[in-house]
């Protein structure tokens, strides 16, 4: 499709015309007007956006453009618009999906001017369509696309031209990590050792707290209230959070207790009770989950969450938290409420 750029200079409102016979008044340009004029005349690289779209089996969507010899990822060139806006526009024009959601930026590839006669910045985003989905559910723009297919990743990559194949393979690898790949013409950009280590893929880490009353009932939260939902649809969660890059698991558990119950609860994080690892259905990465004992010095408010017997709680928690509970020593007691007396000696 032909880009239709609209620069800030051409879209700004026209200046008002002085009344007939009124003396002309020189008006100094505003700073934003000067910036708009500068940006309008400033040379810029072309920008392209592509989408990594998978079906429920993990197959990758590729398309066959009428104007190219090779297959391609869905997407296209960006006009005078935001990157995500351009990607959404292209996908709606070419595929007409019933709905779509643009996710993470997976890769940025800087292609030098020597390749196409003009510098190009190509961005690859993860895009999610409602599942189940098949190529037959898409209404292709026939003057743009001959065909579309969901293929196993290796087969899809084999249909792409070499430069796009390198870019796409790197984007697929970034899908399984926590970083955005930075490329120079499809090759990894040079990095020092510290940056390289920071981009290594790793599992996500979570920490939860086992809070219980004197009767052994366990505090669970509604999943929406708990946040950080790596649970695959379970209705409840233990109080907890994903561990940030600057936290220990114990510090993350303490942060979660403070967020959900407040400072007034007087909760402290005690010993580590159990650790579990799982492939998270809603996160796409391995999750290492820690369960800590929690203590409170004052009676807890009963307006927060639900207090359930351990066996009842296990029915509403995600599988990895159920396994944490079953592995915790003395799970029928959990974290002791110190307002009812000190925890038993172990």
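-> sequence recovered:
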């Amino acid at each position: 499709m032909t880009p239709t750029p609209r620069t800030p200079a051409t879209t700004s409102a026209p200046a008002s015309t002085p009344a007939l016979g009124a003396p002309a008044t020189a008006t100094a340009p505003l700073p934003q007007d000067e910036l708009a004029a500068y940006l309008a005349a400033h040379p810029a690289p072309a920008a392209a956006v592509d989408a990594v779209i998978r079906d429920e089996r993990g197959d990758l969507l590729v398309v066959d453009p009428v104007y190219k010899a090779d297959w391609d990822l869905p997407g296209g060139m960006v006009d005078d618009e935001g990157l995500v806006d351009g990607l959404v526009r292209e996908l709606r024009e070419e595929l007409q999906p019933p709905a779509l959601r643009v996710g993470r930026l997976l890769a940025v590839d800087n292609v030098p001017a020597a390749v196409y006669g003009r510098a190009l910045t190509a961005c690859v985003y993860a895009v999610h369509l409602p599942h189940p989905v098949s190529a037959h559910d898409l209404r292709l723009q026939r003057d743009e696309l001959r065909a579309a297919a969901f293929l196993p990743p290796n087969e899809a990559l084999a249909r792409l031209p070499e430069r796009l194949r390198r870019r796409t393979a790197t984007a697929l690898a970034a899908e399984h990590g926590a970083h955005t790949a930075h490329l120079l013409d499809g090759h990894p950009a040079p990095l020092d050792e510290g940056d390289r280590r920071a981009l290594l893929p790793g599992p996500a880490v979570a920490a939860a707290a086992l809070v219980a009353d004197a009767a052994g009932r366990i505090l669970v939260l509604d999943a929406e209230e708990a946040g950080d939902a790596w649970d695959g649809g379970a209705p409840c969660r233990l109080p907890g959070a994903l561990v940030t890059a600057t936290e220990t698991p114990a510090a993350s558990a303490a942060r979660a207790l403070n967020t959900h119950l407040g400072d007034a609860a007087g909760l402290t994080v005690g010993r580590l009770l159990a650790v579990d690892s799982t492939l998270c259905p809603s996160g796409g990465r391995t999750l290492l989950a820690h369960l800590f004992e929690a203590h409170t010095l004052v009676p807890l408010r009963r307006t927060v969450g639900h207090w359930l017997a351990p066996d009842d709680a296990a029915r509403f928690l995600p599988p990895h938290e159920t396994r944490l509970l079953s592995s915790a020593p003395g799970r029928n007691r959990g974290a002791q409420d110190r307002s009812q007396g000190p925890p038993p000696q172990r």
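Residues 204-340 form a domain with the Nucleoside Triphosphate Pyrophosphohydrolase fold (CATH 3.90.79.10).
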